[in-house]
Amino acid sequence: MTRFLYRHRVRYRECDPMGVVYHAHVLDWFEAARTEALREAGLPYRELEAGGIIMPVVDLAVRYHASVRYDDLVEVEASFPSVGGRLPVDYAVRRAGEDAVRISGRVTLCFVDRERGRPVAPPDRVREVLEREDEPSAVGRAG
């Protein structure tokens, strides 16, 4: 799996007094896209955690190119460029039906043994799934 599309309708409560999406909500969209991508690929976080692996965020970058506003339907594309000791996830937020990227970002996670609290190599299953070359998939909510 290399790319995944998550659809989200911007809610009124996600906007600031200027009518623009408040920056912190974008991180929620990134997380939703990432967790749904992994779930669809057969790697739900719940199962990884049950296996003793947690994946904390160790780095985060976001760039705002253009405004996103109330009631916009956005598509959050999550892509997984590589799997090493860490897992980078790239994001591009577009209004549905548009090519222009309005928000871009990257989140880097690492794999940690929950019991020991120490970094570990990614489980083989994670590597297998994320290195597959599939067509992009789409899921999400529009509400």
What's the helix and strand layout?
Blueprint: E1 3-9, H1 23-40, H2 45-50, E2 53-54, E3 57-64, E4 73-79, E5 86-95, E6 103-110, E7 112-113, E8 118-119, H3 124-130, E9 137-140
Parallel strand pairs: 1-9
Antiparallel strand pairs: 1-4, 2-7, 3-6, 4-5, 5-6, 7-8
Q: What does the model show?
A:
This protein has three helices and nine strands. It is an alpha+beta fold and 143 residues long. The protein has one domain: Roll (Thiol Ester Dehydrase, Chain A). Strands 3-6-5-4-1-9 form a six-stranded mixed beta sheet, with helices on one face. The chain starts with a strand and ends with a strand.
Radius of gyration over C-alpha positions, nearest whole angstrom: 16 Å
In one word, what is the shape? elongated
Largest sheet: number of strands, sense, barrel closure? 6 strands, mixed
CATH C-level: Alpha Beta
Say what the CATH topology is. Thiol Ester Dehydrase, Chain A
At CATH level 2, the architecture is Roll
Enumerate the spans where pLDDT stays under 50 for 5 or more consecutive residues: none
Query: Roughly how much helix do the residues carry, as a percent range?
Result: 10-25%
- Total number of β-strand segments? 9
Distance between the termini: 26 Å
Task: Domain count, please report it.
Answer: 1
Mean pLDDT across the residues is 92
